User: Fold these one by one.
Assistant:
Number 1:
Amino acid sequence: MVKLSKDFVKTAKICGIDHKLEQEGHFYVDKNKITSEQMPKGISAKTTETKNGIKAEITVEKGVKIKEALFFCFGISGKDDKQTIETRLVLEDDSEVEILAHCSFPNAVNASHKMEAKYEIGKNAKLVYKEHHYHGTSSGILVMPKLKVDVAEGGVFLSDFILSKGSVGQVGIEVEVVLGKNAKSEINSKVFGKGNKDIISIIDKVTLEGENSKSLVTMRAAAKDGGRVFMQGETYALGANSIGHIDCQEIVSGEGSVAKAVPIVEVSSDKARVTHEASVGKINQKELETLMTRGMDEEEATELIIEAMMR
Amino acid sequence: MLEVKNFSIASKEDKSILLDKVSFGVEKGEIHCVLGTNGSGKTTVAYAVMGLERYDYVSGKVLFEGQDITKLKPHERAKKGITIAFQEPARFEGLLVSDFLRAGKKDATALEIKKSLEIVGLKPEDFMNRSLDDKLSGGERKRIELASVMIMKPKLMILDEPDASLDIIVYNELYDLMLRIKEELNCTILLITHREEAGLIANGATLISKGKVVATGPFRQVMRKYCEREGRRASCMAFKNKMRVGLANADSKN
């Protein structure tokens, strides 16, 4: 049984979990300090602590399929800390891994979290990446993650990004995915901006480079009580028979709230097809009426509808 | 239990009159049909009783258990014991069926939710944790809608064309279900329909045409008027036969 250091327990708490080190693969960072690191057989990790964060290079070896999700915690426990994370994740051919990343900044007042990440998914490899954020309650954080993903032939990239609890602060997320032949990606983003300090921008960009590649970009956002949300879904279809779809829904509720959706679709193969749908505006009247006829007032009903959409 | 008195409402857009001095009453414990052809104003009556803010109020009153509820909002009427199952139930992305049912009864136990789903013929284990979105069929959503109004144990349940788009076998099951609901909950049902077969379970009826009440009273009497006015002789003949069969079946069960 591994003895847990105080620092480790503290970081685990920042990420909102009661960790018992039962997860074989994990990686905990508080600002620039790696408080615990352990990888299962078949995964190698080189990590370095830098002035304001860490650098990590993780490789999942060819053919290795990790059954239990790896848990990454990138936290800032201080109020004003600046953190920069640089990661390179390589999935060699035919490997599979799921990563659950928690980015948590519960005490942030004037803090920042920047991330530069590059994921390389090999032939027929599969990465499931789930990132959940918690930014505390004072909207005092600037979060700027940039992620580039290359998916080789037959590879799969599935991503969920959720930022729906607590206050958001200022967030600018850019995800760029390039898909090879027969590769597939699904990117889901859900963000909830509540209050006039919450300013969110998300750009999810997919290039369907290889033939028969497929992508789905799903974006869900709610802007409430002065929150501002901008979502841009981009899909560029180059490969023959590639198919893409962008689905964006944003709800606006309360004075001063602004939601903006920009879909960009470009097709440069006469055998490819990309579709998009977007809905931006007030809460669906039928949903609202239904819940009101069940006894909820307008505010309660609005809360429930947004909460459900953000799940 | 419910009295609608000289009630008039107008369209928010062009201010045209949608319901014109509508008056009818519903007794406690009865199944009362609002009959009429497509576009006659049946659903408008249902929404007006529920207080949905889709129209401009012109004049008249809606009384529930003797109390004037004309100015009350839908959630306030719901708290007094009125609710509605919509003809086309809403879809909610991400909302679990169990959470939707709890919207009507915050302290509903898992057992109550399970029972509500079972009554409408759905296996709880297959539906409780599913999202109420477009992956469910229309029939499944209608059943969940019924379960969600049932769990509230309302005094007055408005059912807006629950029998629309159903084939004969299914709507016979539906009418049986309505009788069971009425008996189990000891509630009153305002049934919006254009089906003659509703006579198998209904006590009273109100016939609406072009936003006006043409007749109100015992179901058979109103139905006769409906058949005469709307040129529905063939279907009404069929209805009489079904009524005979229905009554005979009821007799044989007794």
Number 2:
Amino acid sequence: MPESADTPRGSLKVYLGYAAGVGKTFQMLADGHAAAERGVDVVVAYFQPHARPDTIEQAQGLEMVPHRKIEYRGKTFEEMDTDAVLRRRPSIALVDELAHTNIPGSIRTKRWEDVQVLLDAGTEVWTTMNVQHIESLNDQVWQITGIQVRETVPDGIVRQAAEIVAVDVTPDALLNRLKRGAVYKPEMVEKALTGFFKGSNLGALRELTLRQAAHEVDLRQSAYDETRGFQVPRISEARPGGTPDNQPKERILIHITADPSTAMLIRRGRRVADYLHADCTALFVHQTPELSQLSAEERQAVEKHLRFARSLQIETRILAGTDIAKTVVDFARHSQVTQIFVAHSQVGLLERLRGKDFTEDIVRLAQDLQVTVVADRSRRQTLQ
Amino acid sequence: MSDQEKNSHSTRGRLKVFLGYASGVGKSFRMFDEGRRRRDRGQDVVVGALQPKVPIEIQPLLSSLEIIPTFNIKGVPVIDVQAILQRRPQVCLIDGLAYDNPRDSRNAHRWQDVEELLSAGITIVASVNLQYIGDQREAVEKLTGKRVTQTIPREFLDTADEIVIVDAPTEAATERRSALREMALVLSADVIDAGLQRYMHSHGLEQHLGTNERFLICLTPRANFERMMATARRNATRFHCDVLAAYVRRPDLSEADQKLLEQGLAKARENGAQVEVLEGQDPVETIVRYARSHGVTQIFVGHSVKKDLGTRMFGSTVSRLVRAARGIDVRVFPHLDRERQP
């Protein structure tokens, strides 16, 4: 549906939880009912058909936009029918599971992309997700739980949200729900208890959720203060031991290579930049005169990393230079970078003797800059 | 993490706290609603304390619950500890933890009454507001301008088996409430962290989960300590996290260097860092071991400038640190001399 250029973008509200069963969907639907009672035009645009009994009950009485049915490998799958929602033009659309990957054959790959379409058309969207689906938290979640989450949402999408609601329940209460069969079917419960729901995982993810929610509140306050010029003390100043924040803005430079550890480096850089309200740039340096002279394998890996950086709203640069470390450091100096992020290079004694330790080179050359050597946060390395 | 089975040998009751960031967010309602549900599930629940004014939406919840009234001394409501102990319920609800009892009471503070009930094996479900937590009071006062005199110690809150934040999003127009909400979220996360560490410890796990950032500043005589400390403090307020500082004692230190180090340590303490002097043959190993056992996520270290054969063979201290610190970021700071003479 064509929109005039002055249609204001819809606002986004995210119900953030730490596991299945904490009550995100339930609360979203409850708030939907409350809005509908106030006379707001609310529809359920996507709702998990195999939802829990109490959640299904909560959805009763709200208008549902029928799902799109998609055939894939002889089975029928249901996805949100974004076009139907656009035609229906509600004020608020409730969309469950923001991190969901659509079935092949759908118009868009990710549900968050469908949500962007709704927002662009001026529809307000309320949605649900778990903290472990935030892209930049991927490594930390892996480190904590030993589980690598594949369906992620770029941080920038979450950042668009006008409001983040932390849906909180204690792990004990969640485990009770699980054992009562209120979350999964009975045959799934045992597996859940020894897998994702085991031991300290829930507590740790819950802690991450609350920290993330606090961080999101902090970011929104800063943005608000900047636009309105409020003189209220920032929490960072009011907190015990807090300091006023009148330092010049930090600039982080992430050094990109073809090495797989680069993905981790990008996520960590994004995360730190967010917390420090810093600018963030990613740089790749090729020793060949032209980028096209790199091996196909290396070029693909580098391009993947550059795309990934851009998807997290990191500005990317490509430079040619025979001495990579020197090129990186020179660029940093000229661009007022305050911190260079590099991955830890795994080199043997022989290479070190020959002076071929890249991390060492950067550290040595950048003696007037801060260099952060980012650790490999995969679980193998931390459990020794 | 609280774990009922693991604690079954002890007779202490469990403490569950509903934390609100302002009055009116609904923590009393949530608490009494939980009391009602526990009663419906067959638990023996009593109410040990109500707020002086009972909001209208809570009254229906109270109708099904037994109340052991507080008694009034000089207009101050005091929990009837004796009556509750005699009644011996499984669960006792306390709406409002932060009250000072009048002089000559059984205990000076209500949280001590609660402590007594917990020791007697009674589970406590209680509510409290952010501004009444000892270490938060000052910050809340700065934001709200309202003075608070009655507080509960942070250490008491940290013993909670469960904490629930009653989180209600704020309208953008009430930016003070946003700041309070942020503080309450961080406080809840910190209390959960304390519980997680107890859980890990009780399971013989020394590993830290890395759920929260923690910075460690390595002190060396020539490091630009002022810069490192200032950066750490600034970043720590952003990350809501702790700063530690440590140095490894070395016998061969000159008197001048020793003095520099001690100045650094004093400065770190002034800035609220947790300071430690470590003993060990190998400084790198010693620092990394300390960092690991204290859940450090980022080590701050000053640049080393030497480049001799030994350094080339085994790497500079910095690169040895990087190699040893697997799983921990290492942030290298410019050398003092470098910064002074560009």
